[in-house]
Queue: 3 jobs
Job 1
Amino acid sequence: MRYQLYYWPTIQGRGEFVRLALEQAGAEYIDVARMSGKDRGVSALMHGLAAGGTTPFAPPYLKAGRLVIGQTANILLYLGDHHALAPKDETGRLWTHQLQLTIADFVAEVHDTHHPLAASLYYEDQKPAAKRYSKTFLAERVPKYLGYFERILKRNPRGKRFLAGARLSYVDLSMFQVMAGLDYAFPNAMAKRRRSYPLLRELSARVAALPRIAAYLGSKRRIPFNNDGIFRRYPALDTRK
């Protein structure tokens, strides 16, 4: 089966968590909005959103045969079950999904560093609020979230290599994306905390070295970080303090 991924064509965003899972699974997929031709690009997203009885709220969504699956964590739950990217037992699957939902909460807070007032406003329209929000985010929220995931790795009864169980899961791929995004958006703040999360750093390095992920990261399929996505580099928001 060839999957069809629907997401914005010029940003990593939430769709990147799905792309990483598809790449590691070695799954055949089409990144529909990035294709050229009629009914591609953004129009493909809008057409897909208007069709079907299980219409998703917004991208990303994945077409798998007759299934249309929306919400990043929900898509990953499906891919984890079908491509050995999640534990096989129910407890392990739910735990992996729970961790992914926590990552989703964190990603939402990352987005709010540059859009704390309204998503409909430009960053330039909310700079003072963004600076205040980011200061608290870096001082309080980053240590809270990353500290939690560092402890999860440390306490994993199956070893400290992965977040859920003894094997790689989609949540490990997502954690890599979070760490890479934070390093891009807040290089000064993350450099200050580089030694605070050794297990997360080791996990990220292992994920980046996986043959399929390494090939993807070095390919044109990987959209570079930019200031239109979730992780944005605005020097005024980054601080070592």
Job 2
Amino acid sequence: MENNNEHYDASDIQVLEGLEAVRKRPGMYIGTTDVKGLHHLVWEIVDNAIDESLAGYCKNIEVVINKDNSITVKDDGRGIPTAVHPKTGLSTVETVYTVLHAGGKFGGGGYKVSGGLHGVGASVVNALSKWVEVKVYKNGEVNFIRFENGGHTVEPLHVIDKCDEKRTGTVVTFKPDPEIFDTDVYDYNTLMVRIRELAFLNRGLSITIRDDRDEEDTTGETFLYEGGISEYVKFINQEKTPIHEDIIHLEGEEDGVQFEVAMQYNTSYNENIYSFVNNINTHDGGTHEEGVRRALTRVINNYARKTGMLKDKDESLTGDDVKEGLTMIISCKHPNPQFEGQTKGRLGNSEVRKLADSVFSQGFERFLMENPEDAKLIVNKAMLACRARNAARKAREITRKSEMATTNFFGKLSDCKSKDPKVSEIFIVEGDSAGGSAKKGRDSMTQAILPLRGKILNVEKARLDRALSNEEIRTIITAFGTGIGEEFDLSKLRYDKIIIMTDADVDGSHIRVLLLTLFYRFFKPIVEAGHVYAAQPPLYCIKHGKTIKYVLNDDDRDKYLATLNPNTKVDIARMKGLGEMDAEELNETTMDINKRVLRKITVDDCVAADAIFEKLMGDEVEPRRKFIEENAVYVQNLDV
């Protein structure tokens, strides 16, 4: 991290507009007031510290979850300027925390590159907090200011102590307002995963997270990666088998735009490509990702033809072919990024496409020429993917014709009468016995039943062409209506809810994991769009008097019993498996939309989900054995 000599004082903080309406419409500023919005407040403050790091000043950041679920973020950057701001007449710290769009990120010289919400972060956190305290270490003094009840200054900035002349930085502590958020309880793992990601994306920056609610863990975790995104690729591939040892790391800079890529191929059939701009995950891609993908396909084709691996008569490899088994991190640091959409999901700067293409193609061509053995392995993998793609296309055509030509499929699927996807849902059940009860217990207007006969193929170990040869998978594809692979179209999904309804025993759990693996690998947009659910059949039926209460687990049973009069003679019955329930029981406990409990399946952390699927369902035995050994102690109700 290079220290630059650009000035940073009160004149760098520019005021654009005031701080009204944040509390009235928090969703406009942080997206949502659920648990995701709660955690977003942390990133607004952390982003300010990261910006100091990008400017070359901050080397250490610490995030602490305090016992009262307030958050403290410490950094050793320059510290927010403390002088009176010329436009507001307030101290600059108070200006930053009470005026919307007041910050050093609008061309005043404070920052070359920044993430966050372009200057609304600190003031938005203040507006949505019960209280905020800020300490600024600067010029041998500790400055302090406190805000309460949505951003009202109760203690203006004043000096409370002296400190070492060399010590600089900012310490922010805030308590989210429980009147704004659905919950004010922070999740350690959610914060830790993003903090680890930020450390990967900013090499040489040390970020520590500590949970002071946990009395046993007083040290927390520190993330520091001198290898940056190369170590990120290594982390993602830790449960996979790379086909070449060295991680390819390429970087370049032009007109103040920094660009870097790290990549490594593995033996799996799935891609893991993640792109970032100023540390923000551009999950919808953009010009930086387009430039790399375009160059990747071109360079591999050129190399394959130049070396004779691809003959004149052979078709060229496609983008899908060359990204099979590829783990890649793309990171761009841009002084003026243009994001498309409210969520900053896509980078729009056209000049970045050319830079990305140029940096990547030059570096990757050099790697292939200097490492012919690795190059041969990479090209061979892409050529195998090409052959499998063509086989899958033929299999899809055969599948489509056979399904259209036979009525057998409709013997498997008991469809609902409604053709409106918004109100329709499909239950995927295990076996004909559960299927029979489900058919009788359903609302036939909106609920479809698809019984699976036997376990589906483990697609973690199979390409699409092999998956399409599995009858159960073909049945699911036909029922969904979206197609698969190159033909996939989310808009053609025939059901709003896809509900996995399996028993809570070993077989049921196995089938559920196989289905989730299938959905994650070949229908990921369905999962990302929130269409996949798991039915939650109750474990107990509690009867007392004329009251019947179903509860999901032991904890719910104990909580409910605690609400009853101690003198009540209560009858507690453990529920039967789904296949053993009659239609009325199944409807009342698991299918009736007014009484049932569904658990939405999400993919918040794709990297973690991918690692779990690879570990539990992949070819490598050792990671699976290790996982079982480490978790065997937690097993209850073992079904042998």
Job 3
Amino acid sequence: MNQREPISLKKIHVTGVVQGVGFRPFVYQLAHEHSLAGWVCNTSAGVDIEVEGRSPALIQFLADLKAQAPPLAHVESITATDSPPDGYRQFEIRSSVTQEGEYQLISPDIATCQDCLRELLDPQDRRYRYPFTNCTNCGPRFTIIEDIPYDRPKTTMRDFTMCPDCQAEYDNPLDRRFHAQPNACPICGPHLSLLGEDGTAVGVEDVISAAVQLLTEGRILAIKGLGGFHLACDATNEEAVRRLRQRKRRPAKPMAVMMATMEKITTHCLVSREEEELLSSLQCPILLLPWKDDSTVCRLVAPGNRYLGVMLPYTPLHHVLLREMGRPLIMTSGNVSEEPIAIKNDEALTRLRGIADYFLVHNREIYARYDDSVWMVVEGRSQPLRRSRGYAPFPIRLSFKAQQILACGTELKNTFCATKDEYAFLSQHIGDMGNMETLEHFQASIELYKRLFRLEPEIVAYDMHPDYLATKYALGYGESVQLVPVQHHHAHIVSCMVDNGADGEVIGVALDGTGYGTDGAIWGGEFLVADYRSFRRVGHLQYVPLPGGEAAIHKPYRMAIGHLYSLLGEEGLSAALPFLGEMDELEVHIIKQQIDQEINAPLTSSCGRLFDAVSALLGFHGRATYEAQAVIRLEMIAADQDDGTSYPFSIVELDGIRAVQLADIWQGILDDLLGQVPAPAIALRLHNTMAQISLDMCRVAASETGLDRVALSGGCFQNRLLFTKTVATLREDGFEVLTHSRVPCNDGGVSLGQAIIANSTMQTVD
């Protein structure tokens, strides 16, 4: 270095996820490496740095600041200005500074890192088997933060005073636990307790060993984790799994399984390279994997399903439990039915009593509820089905500056979305808004986001459905904000556009179960031309009655009768009834009356309801106990060998909107059944037909507009078979196809679309 080079000073401001991720010790070490003096500190707006030295060193420091940032850091921007030297003699880390109205990005909770795992499994280490081991590279973040800047007094770890050894790590800039806010050890940190069903402590010498023994015996445990409780049992014990289902009132919905290592997972499931990378990632989501026939995980875990939801341990407690258990464990959300996951010990003892035999609890409070994230990999491309732990509250970066907007989402798989500056903060999974507990979770989470990100919504967007609780919440804002109703499927398509960074117009294919239409009907098989501001409906699946309204969703045979009777008449229905199982003649008569007299039989164009109806005809009799159960069965039974056969259909135009006529499809299905064509072949042909319908409707839209980009969204595209066939069919015809990769295609992504549409709409109004 040229010693005659003058001393310069740079004032640097860094934004992004740069707190609680080891960024300040990284800056400290980088400054020492380049012989620079000055300081670094956290602020409510990010990280501020003043660094003083010779020009070449400063230039290299700035280059390394982003290029060599810690693994959990996500640097959004670095701004640097020159200033007169201040005569700094050393580099130091200063105390955090609170700035009124400023905000920063916050790290999600992160799975246990390899360094902490080595300590956890080392009998010579002071943190051996300690279930709360963490460092700046892993552990709880979002679930323990009450406010920013991210310092221990503003987290739920404030109740634990560090011992001298932990304090020394915390204070040492060269230690990986420097300013790790949850830092703790067995001497000074949180601890586990084992409680009986009545909440009394069980006197055991080793809590984890006792829990392992209980699980081995077939008991059900409620286990407190990062963002709430899991209900756990031995996944290879059919009797224990059956008992858990009965107690949780979850007769058929698949449950997630946790396995100790990747090697264990490969003994039960087929795992691709992309799937292994996602399973082992910092986020550690549940991943839907092809289930091996010789797996010892009992089939009752995911009845009738080809895929098993699997995750690796992501907390130290999980690592120790799974390794000492030696078997896969069910780790399903600690709740009843569709209630939110329990987070407090007393709450779990109340809500999960009668389900869990024992409670494995700890005394570190959870501030934010946080369900596990769920993903799938289809043809090498990862897609989220539930975006929560490990991902939220990290924002979706926008290509424009948005207004302060709160979008309230939908009734099912609810998330909300808040926009500010270039960020869209899509919330963690909230759940189905069918009870007061979930509404309270929704409201509390909104208040947390408003506080953390200094949000004061000027605009509130909501779904057009008047009965949604999220809609009623939005309307409660009254005249204090601009209220913007957004059509459900328009929001679906825009969420896919934002997911892909696309603007302008696209052809939108929105296939899902339920969405309130602008004409008052229940939409769900929609073909649109849309942009961020508006949409035009090009076409839809033919309207059919939904006999009994919500009842038809829970009883797919009602949907089958609705299709058959309205499209093929009495003759068609009579021919089909033997395939619907034992039917109550009175109920069939009532359903026909509802259709004839148009009583409680709203019209729907839903693709999900079409698939429900066909599933009922192919053997799914009785009541669906969870959303899309009949549709999932249809996908699972579809034949693997494809001869390309599909059913005929026609498209008619009325007042400029096309309707895909379904009668020929149903006649084809009925002819196949009467001709004893196997159900798997019929199921496959229906998927082929829906892909062809999408292609033909996109061709119509393209001929009218010249567009060649198609955005696919809606819950039906969680169906891998429908997704792959539709994508392949469109691409083979020359269309550019946009699909989801960061936000769910289901209703969990709708709030993002709502926010962007509201932003564009209000800018247009202004």
